[in-house]
Amino acid sequence: MLTVRTHTSLDPDLLAEIARDQGTPTYVYDGRVLDAGVHRWVDAVGDPARICYAVKANYNLGVLSRLASHGIGFEASTIGEMARALAAGVSESRVVLGGVPKSSEAVEEGIRRDLDLVVLQASHEVEAAVRAGASRAGPPAKVGLRVRPGIRAGAHPSLETGRADAKFGFDPSEIRDAWMALAAADGLQPTTLAFHLGSGLDSLRPYEGAIDVLLHLVEDLTSTRAPVRELDLGGGLGVAYDEGEMDLEPADLVRIVEDRLAGTDLTVRYEPGRSIAAHAGTLVTRVLYRRERDGHPALICDGGFTDFGRFALYGAEHGIEPVTGELEGPATVEVLGPTCESGDKLGTGRRLHGVRPGDLLAVRDVGAYGFVMASNYNARPRPAEILVDDSGWRVVRVREALEDLWRGEIAG
Ligand code: LLP
Fold it and tell me: Which of 1, 2, 152, 285 has the smallest number of CB atoms closer than 10 Å to its CB?
């Protein structure tokens, strides 16, 4: 079942005030929408500790500490993401080092610390964990294995991760040996089988087959000295970016999971990123000028694909609206960025005919995979980030200065 999304309701006057004060392009996050994203998951799952927000979606420290105030966990796919979560005040015991390709050194660091879970997804990672476990002080480190269930998720090809030909995780036939190696190791306690099917799924059906793959493995491992205790189902729930689309609901996923797991005593962990953060973010950009190109009008803006790359990378159509004023149609314009590439677009076919140079545009639902994928290409300082709540707005990352562009470089 699908329900209407929880959208950011940022007031146009507030966006205009922020743009006046901080310049453009600028990311603006609505803290209340972040809260609503967490509540949707907590209402569905119950225990907040079983919801591990995927840090990669938006790792601004202000955003992370706001999310942490709800008592949820955090999934970090790198040591850098782990360090960000810790810097935001999250305790190690709330952090999962996730099942994304890692160096042996990263695995060893994960095992040395007192993390909630370390998910391993290749043989060299298992070997590194076994080595690090042997010299670990304190209670055994909880570890899991990521399975590649061989399921097509129906997402953009770049965002599918559970197919048989994906680079992530173990084939189901390899799990027993890897699990036994972990079970025999000192300082490790294998608890969890994990998958992540992909991101931006438009249906929950793929979870059904993938859970069944895990359940077969759970059964196969029942009689070992370390039976599986937990399933980690990754992230993946798609959200509405365009008119007519709907969010997938955590409650519907939980229903599927409870149905499949009835009669077992397995616990379940989720790693949502997009479905918590996407709707909370707006990118405010200013129109520099308008250009007629053989009857194809375009607005050239001060924000482009270096600031927000999802259209250029995946053809993702995010809503783009005038900050003040209404959409006008039916004729459409392209919305282009300022850099040196023709593919630098924020969107196409937009009903923005009334928009004039100097006007502000709001690119919607950019709270996930927005700023985190911004680059300095063309030596463009990255945007400011702002967090809004009931008491007003505050800067949670200052706009980069020109000197930031060459920090760490050595001339001559
Ligand atoms: N867990 C793991 C192991 C993941 O790799 C990911 C995302 C998640 C959880 C969170 O998935 P979500 O709930 O956000 O779908 N840059 C792309 C998205 C890449 C996501 C990669 N992994 C985009 O802009 O759409």
Answer: 1
